[in-house]
# Entry
Amino acid sequence: MAEEATTPDAAQAQQNPVKMQVLAQYIRDLSFENILSQKGVKGEVKPEVKVEVALDAKKRTVENQFEVITKFKVNSTNHDSEEPLFILELDYAGIFHIENVPEAQMHPFLLIECPRMLFPFVRRIVSDMTRDGGFPPVNLDNVDFLALYRQEIARRATAEAPATPPN
# Structure
């Protein structure tokens, strides 16, 4: 029977498992504008919803603590006339205590795993706000934070790539 080879990183990971604790989570900023009530819409209302997501993370002054901010913008327009019905903007943050994540993996960890922990709370707030604002509750679809992270990395790589001179 052959012995399994373990890399130093794998051995260290077994000795020091990743620790993540949510210390706090909160609404940093919230705005809901019911345009339908303010301006009115002529004809039948068939809402169409568009969701934009942005992420941000920063190290805090306390060791092993990070703030992760998820930014959601939910726009609803009338399908036929494309007139706006409502706009919801939500910045929802969490304070995380994270240990034993290698430095090279910290950035993806903060922008993938931490937002996954916050998302159920964001979904509930968006649902409640749209319902309380006079519309059917918007139940956000799951967000693929890994795909979002990869898109951002690809966008940054494209933006930083030197422009090739025309031939």
